[in-house]
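Hey Z.,

So I finally got round to the zinc ion thing we talked about over coffee. Here's the setup:
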Amino acid sequence: MRTIISFILAGAALGLLLSACGDSGDDSGAAVHVTATTPQVADFVREVGGDRVAVDQILSPSSDPHEYEPRPSDAATLADADLVVSSGGDLDSWLGQVVDASGTDATELTLIDHVETRTVDGETDPHWWLDPRNTELAVGAIADALAEADPDGAAGYRRRADAYLKELRDLDSSIAACMSAIPAPERKLVTSHDALGYYADRYGIEVIGAAIPSLSTQGQASAGETADLVDTIKRTGVSTVFPEEGTSAKLERAIADEAGAKVGGELWTDTLGPDGSDGATYVEAMRSNTAKLADGFTDGRDDCAEALGG
Ligand SMILES: [Zn+2]
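And the result:
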């Protein structure tokens, strides 16, 4: 740990030195510099901020936030930020040490503090954005924070937030329409880790289990737990096991094989994808997840294309 922190400190010092030499990046015209942790948080800030806001995103697309180890350049990035926006909880708990190392005086906005959270065995589930109504709350908090950092841009942030909120409400109602068209006994979910609790609560899906029975991908299943999950899949008639983007699907495939279930499309849970992928933005990722889930739940009978407007 000490090595990591001194590494970060050295990097931060180097970053400050470099920025003192003249930061001629193409975002120099931006009114606010924001550092965001995960791709989905960065996407929300870009939606609200538009051209006035330069967004530095710490995590690359398709990477697992639970296992991220900060780089020296992260502290340097933070040192230049006016506002730091994090997802919160176990997902980006590594941010604290980077903030300390960077010496930044940026305002910090932790989105999980502004949403409705669920608790599992006394632990707060950090995957709040998988219920679009929580994303609406987060977008409101981002608009307020940007307006405070840049009062001249406040009206524009509010306008952009309102347009995005409308898109999020449409997203929520189209997912609800898609899922409610599938008979409840078919809506049984097995994923890589316990990431989809908010989505399942919102859209009436029963979570049967996860290859890693934990809110973090850093958890591990014992051989007994994996065997129990295989039995439960067989007993409850789960048709499909869904791997998640950003994690290895090895265990999921083995479990599906053993239980005689199919392997479904990879879900965008803790990350978003690169440009051009079906998860390049939050809205695209949620639509794509819903289509993959509907396809898996119904054995390809329903791909939800109509309800999703696709
Ligand atoms: Zn997760």
